[in-house]
Amino acid sequence: MLEQVIFFTIILGFLITVLLSPIFIPFLRRLKFGQSIREEGPKSHQKKSGTPTMGGVMILLSVTITTLVMTGKFSEPTSKTFILLFVLLGFGLLGFLDDFIKVVMKRNLGLTSKQKLLGQIIISIVVYFVLKQTEFSTAVSIPFVDKSIDLGFFYVLFIIFWLVGFSNAVNLTDGLDGLVSGTAAISFGAFAVLAWSQSQYEISIFAVSVVGAVLGFLVFNAHPAKVFMGDTGSLALGGAIAAIAILTKLEIILILIGGVFVIETLSVILQVISFKSTGRRIFRMSPLHHHYELVGWSEWRVVVTFWSVGLLFAALGIYIEVWL
User: Fold this and answer.
1) d(CA 239, CA 31)
2) Which of 20, 160, 276, 288 lies at a CB distance of 3.0 to 4.6 Å from 267, suitable for a disulfide?
3) Would you list the DSSP string of 119-160?
4) Alpha carbons 19 and 35: distance in angstroms, whole number
5) How many CB atoms lie within 10 A of CB 117?
């Protein structure tokens, strides 16, 4: 029964996104919600200017509908289900506002960094206080050594760092056609397996609903993309995967399963540190996917390579948690 629920969850999430896209994409075009391409980016990306963005709205709708419908097939939605949807929609709303300011108000940088950070912190604090009411453990497990560290009150800072950090990490990774759609499907799929192994079926259903939704989105987002998810999608997906890691108490293993997002973020940090301290750049351009574009790789080759690396990281994460 549960296996069937998981299977039909992926199918439903996929179909909702696929069926919404032919309606929603022309609607975005009519509203002229086209992506603005920054001049400092790779020159090859200038031809993408005007491609409809804010497609993440379709992902959010698909995940929300699929999660609520399919969770109700075997039990009532729990507080964990609503926490995951709250994070997904909360971070998605921040991303929507950011995209709206960029494409409608023509301010290319969208929300200021302080405005975005404040919103992310508020959502994270709400999550902490909701979890606190359920006597949620504030201990963080350390892989390999079979130990955990109880952070006590400081766990709120950890939640803030994890949700904010990974939402921005996925956002940074969203720079090539299909890159985040593919890597997100892999990462959420891995956590669906791990949540299932813990008998946390409601979390597993949420995770596979994301897999179905982003795979449906990938049909229209693969190179050459007909639509971009925008910050609406990337911030929401990053926050949601961090929330899953927190609820399954697999916070640290997220660093491995979400390894592509971590590496992309580190490439930006290292680039900034190097340039400010030495005046030299480590990479031709950051995030890292742009570096490979500028050394001559095709966009599709970069995306498939990053998918492959993400798949390897996900497999290692599952192996460590389930079999070691």
Assistant:
1) 28
2) 288
3) HHHHHHHHHHHHHHTTT---EEEETTTTEEEE-GGGHHHHHH
4) 22
5) 15
Backbone angles phi, psi at 292, to 5 degrees: -70, -30
By the 8 A CB rule, do 272 and 263 touch?
Answer: no
| Under 8 Å between Cβ of 66 and 209 | yes
Prediction pTM value? 0.94
Class of residue 217 by CB neighbours under 10 A (exposed 0-12, middle 13-18, buried 19+): buried
Can you tell me whether residue 81 is helix, strand or coil? Answer: helix
CA angle 16, 104, 287 (to 5 degrees): 75
pLDDT at 37: 57
CA distances from 210 to 6, 33, 207, 214, 260 (A): 12, 24, 5, 6, 18
- Under a CB-based contact definition with an 8 Å cutoff, are residues 311 and 189 in contact? no
Give the tens place of pLDDT for each residue, 128-163: 999 999 889 999 998 877 789 999 999 999 999 999
Three-state DSSP class for residue 34: strand
Q: State pLDDT tens for residues 226-259.
A: 999 999 999 999 999 999 999 999 999 999 999 9
CA–CA gap between residue 265 and residue 172 (Å, rounded): 7
